[in-house]
Amino acid sequence: MSSKPMTMVSEPGPAMPKPRAKGQPLRDLDKHQAEEHAIVRAAYRLISQRDTEPLAVQDILTETGLSTRAFYRHFTSKDDLITTMYRTDSQREMSRLSNRLAEAGSPMEAVVAWIDHWIAIIYDRKVAQHLRVLWATEARALAGFRTVESETNLMSITLLSQILAAGHHQGVFPTAEPDDDARVFQAAVVALLEVRLLGERPSTMAAARTHLASFIGRSVGCELNGA
Description:
mainly alpha, Tetracycline Repressor, domain 2, 10 helices
């Protein structure tokens, strides 16, 4: 049984625009979205140019040429902006993962799709650059950021646990312990992602995928075809 081809993840975009308010003129909506996109793009640029130096709202205003009022139309604070950026990207990736798993024809194909999704994120250079901005020291210190990170990991764990449970019920994954295994497998991909973001020298993409698939397969009692 073969898995579907791995689809590389495209570079994440700016925060999703807020819905149009009832009766709001389209030209005002366009301006509103343009402001929000400009703020998000500026924040990514500025954070990427810094190491440990904190980012200030005034830095963003200087970069965009927008007013203080314009900034606070969209975000309650700088922390709210950074957390929103991370939440938007995380929700987008979890939606892609959920859709991809739903398209799988069997639990085995779904596990391979889960592996491919995370390997694609970890090894895509543009995505890694984007995530490195969000994983900057300042961003990761935010309570809201850690909350979003936990939510994202929990969603991925839940999706994988459901797949492992279905495969165990069918006898495909005879030794699987769905909840515990899913947590361990998620920890493995997070650790690999952190190695990449810290600029260390991980294994090649092909080797990492093979090792992860072998580890998961041995844990659940099967050989993952197509991985």
